[in-house]
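Section 3.1: Structural characterization of target chains.
Under the original work plan, the team committed to producing a structural model for every single-chain target entering the pipeline before any wet-lab resources were allocated. The record below documents one such target. The sequence was received from the expression subgroup and is listed exactly as submitted; it comprises 502 residues.
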Amino acid sequence: MRQIFLGLLLPFWLTSTPSNTLSREYHSPSNLSQSFSSESVGDSFNTTARRLVQQQMYLIARIEQALKDPDPNRMRSVRGQLTVQTKSVEGFLQRQYSDPKTLCIPRTDSSVTLSAKFTISQAQIYCSLYASSQELLKLAPVLDRLLSRRGELALVRQLPLVTGERQSDPVLSLAPVQVPNLGKPATPFATREPNLTTPPLPVIGRAAKTAIANYVPPMQPAIAPLEEAIATLNAANKFLKAAQVAFSGETKFIDPQEDAAILDRFGYDIDPQETQTYAKFLELPNTGIFRVLPDSAYRRQLNTLQNRLQASVSDRYPFPSLGEAKGEFTPSLALQTVGDNFQLVHRGVDYSFMVDVGDIPLEKLDGRLQAVSSPTREFFFNYQPPKQLEALQVDRRRFLTGKHQNWNQSQVILAGAKAELNHTYVVRSLQFQLPEIILRRQQIFQENSRSRQELGQIPSSDMILAFRPVRRRPDGSYTVLWRVLNQLPAPSIEDLENYVPY
């Protein structure tokens, strides 16, 4: 089992970068009469070189992550680690041969011979490690420049002094120096975000009160990695690949980017064997399997920085689509857990309701819900969504809150239900794609008559589906099987023109 040290673990959203092996061989000059350290003999050389190559692989992955992360502590950490690593590599190379630049000049003269203490494979490892380290050195001024820019986003605390030095403050001589922990994110300058655990349901078509008057959430930074820095990292990684090839077949290296991708899938995706376990069910039409995550997985932690250009969890692991796309509109099963309940994510004027029908296998459910009790079945088919925008949103609030329901139903029908393993939940989901002119209350002019036409051609869907949780993980996520049971006529909204200023 491969070991992953805690100090080297990478976040889940780290992506891998392709790199090619170096095909060029390095040949030593003919005057290799200089003495080599005893460390270069046999296993001692390979052991130290392998450790340095592995450390350099970790460093490249951490630098690549820091280039995309707005946290200055992460950038300052890799800047210091770059200095330590390059000095370690330089010391090792100097102990083997005093002039690596001369040794690693590419040569085509096949008559050149190597010292008996320095084999061809060791020469390739030596020169590849040297070339990789020289590439990384180019990043030192780049990281310094980027660190100053990161300091505009969060507080960069003063590092502790070396042993034997003392620091005095000209104003507050007794004030303690707060030592930063570079393993933790720095404190952003834009803090004091309110903890709105239940954000208010948006109201389309009219002004609505907000939880905090005139509050505007802070804009998260957009950071695109420098192309020159990425090119340098790729070149350094390319040389490391050449060094890895020169080791014996028994020597194994840990790819931190590959491990990060595995950890990311482990944290948010289903296990590969689960697809095999339920392969027979997945052969049925309109079925699928996915992992339902807690709602906290989609939220940014308060008072922290996040690069808004990086792919979010919902981008990397999108909700499953439930039908064919109609232009940019694709109905989806946007299911998550909120506390102990299953809850669908409602965007715009989307809404749904669900009922726990107990331990009924999905295979026994059909398009008419014959296996479901009669009152529940009748409600699912008899409910008619309103055709007016205001009435539609009133019904949505009734399902979300359970208040003012006049369905002539013995039980309250809600948009969520308590999560129970091996129970089946029947859902009726209504989804709409409102045009931007409605969502942003834009004005229609004579020249944008195309927007006027869009008001009467809103893509929508109305379907009955069922899902069944078959596994619960300690983090509160569930593996669920789902199946679309019935596709009802697409609903429409007939009074959208009333909500557009002319």
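The longest strand covers residues 460-472.
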